[in-house]
Design a protein that fits this description.
Layout: H1 7-13, E1 37-39, E2 42-43, H2 55-67, E3 72-76, H3 79-87, E4 95-99, H4 104-114, E5 120-124, H5 129-134, E6 140-146, H6 158-167, E7 171-175, H7 180-183, E8 193-197, E9 211-215, H8 218-231, H9 237-247, H10 250-269, E10 274-278, H11 288-294, E11 301-306, H12 309-319, E12 324-325, E13 335-337, H13 349-355, E14 361-365, H14 371-382
Parallel strand pairs: 4-5, 4-6, 6-7, 7-8, 12-13
Antiparallel strand pairs: 1-2, 3-9, 8-9, 10-11, 11-14, 13-14
Helix pairs in contact: 1-2, 2-9, 3-4, 12-14
Bound molecules: ligand P1T.
Length: 383
């Protein structure tokens, strides 16, 4: 494969070549914990122990790094473990500027685990330059953001985030889980680290929990590899194999996620039971202009506020027949959930409400089923 191959070619081939032992086209599942050494300390093929490195994982790391336009990929056993590894770059007394709308588990790691270890954070509205910049102080070492955010789908200008992080001497990490590298590549816009919950679109089939970090900095990659090995939250070879199989179709799946979501968002926007449909592809979306600039398409996630608050929201979630009421997102099958009760329950109620995570808010992960069936399902559930 050529270095400058296009996305779909890299999705299928990057990091993988026919297996040197057998010619197998698919990278084998190297289901081994350890590797024979020809003499103490002399490795046969660069591998000594599978916490440190495993060939199936190496292929996955190279594959996702290529998709993100990065040089180094570092894989973990979950998206939370990828965030945790990034936070291990910091020391007590350091400070993080954190987006105000992030996955509930991301907030929980900052608030319940790292705060007591002396890592402080300030959550800011990054859609407003002045509020964003006011979040920095002399101890700020890291900016962590999602775009689109979970669950309000706010867009953060990655170029602006990079400018502010550099000005204040901090690293910029972008959680690219919702967009995927098919829709945006944050490293090209100035991010130092890209993070994924590969449980989501990268995996795409709701059958793996995983995470990955990508960077272009050899210094950061060395530190993150060190943390990966020292802490040990690594993915199993089988999970790496499944993720490699998934990334081969990422571009094809994303096109259909975007197309289905576009049609469903416009259906919801015109529905009498829907107070507000939130989707970056809608003209009514406040940051539609930034979405067009920063993203190749608008993604598969939609949020909506239904008229009738919690009782109506619960009834929709109970009545769907094709959508499943479940946490998570990014799989080929459509999921629907209630952020205030489910994915964002750890965020204090007042903070949730200030962000718009109201009792009537429902989040949809639009799958790639036939869109007419999905619209019909939502139509009967909303009726
Ligand atoms: O679940 P895990 O693989 O550990 O990933 C955590 C995570 C990180 N970043 C974002 C943007 C996420 O959405 C998640 C996980 N989110 C859900 C489970 C959810 O339903 O929103």
């Amino acid at each position: 494969m050529k270095e400058n191959s296009k996305f779909g070619t890299r999705a299928i081939h990057a990091g993988q070549s026919p297996d040197s032992a057998t010619g197998a086209i698919m990278t084998p599942v190297y289901q081994t914990s350890t590797y024979a050494q020809s003499s103490p300390g002399k490795f046969i093929k660069n591998y000594d122990y599978s916490r440190s490195a495993n060939p199936t994982r190496t292929a996955l790391e190279a594959n996702i790094a290529s998709l993100e336009g990065g040089s180094y990929g570092i894989a973990f056993s979950s998206g939370c473990a990828a965030l945790d590894a990034t936070l291990h770059l910091l020391s007590a007394g350091d400070h993080v500027v954190l987006g105000d709308d992030v996955y509930g588990g991301t907030f929980r790691l900052f608030e319940m685990v790292y705060k007591q270890l002396g890592i402080n954070y300030t959550m800011v509205d990054m859609t407003d330059r002045a509020s964003f910049e006011a979040g920095f102080n002399k101890q700020t070492k890291l900016v962590w953001l999602e775009t689109p955010t979970n669950p309000m789908l706010k867009l953060i200008d990655i170029g602006l985030a990079s400018e502010l992080a550099k000005k204040h001497g901090a690293l910029l990490a972008v959680d690219n889980t919702f967009a995927t590298p098919y829709l945006q590549t944050p490293l090209a816009l100035g991010a130092d680290i890209v993070s994924h919950s590969s449980t989501k679109y990268i995996g795409g089939h709701s059958d793996v929990v995983g995470g990955v970090l990508v960077t272009n900095s050899s210094e950061l990659a060395d530190k993150l590899h060190y943390i990966q090995n020292a802490v040990g939250a690594v993915p199993a070879p089988w999970d790496c194999f499944l993720l490699l199989r998934s990334t081969k179709t990422l571009h094809v799946r994303m096109k259909q996620h975007c197309e289905n979501a576009r049609q469903i968002a416009s259906f919801l926007e015109g529905h009498s039971e829907v107070e507000k449909a939130i989707y970056p592809g809608l003209e009514s979306f406040p940051q539609h202009g930034l979405a067009k600039e920063q993203m190749k398409d608008f993604g598969g996630m939609i949020s909506m506020i239904v008229r009738g608050g919690l009782p109506k929201a619960k009834s929709v979630l109970e009545k769907v027949k094709i959508f499943s009421c479940a946490e998570s997102l990014g799989g080929v099958e459509s999921l629907i959930e209630h952020p205030a009760i489910m994915t964002h329950a750890t965020i204090p109620k007042a903070q949730r409400e200030a962000l718009g995570i109201a009792d009537g808010l429902i989040r949809l992960s639009v799958g790639i089923e036939d869109v007419d069936d999905l619209i019909q399902d939502l139509s009967q559930a909303l009726a």
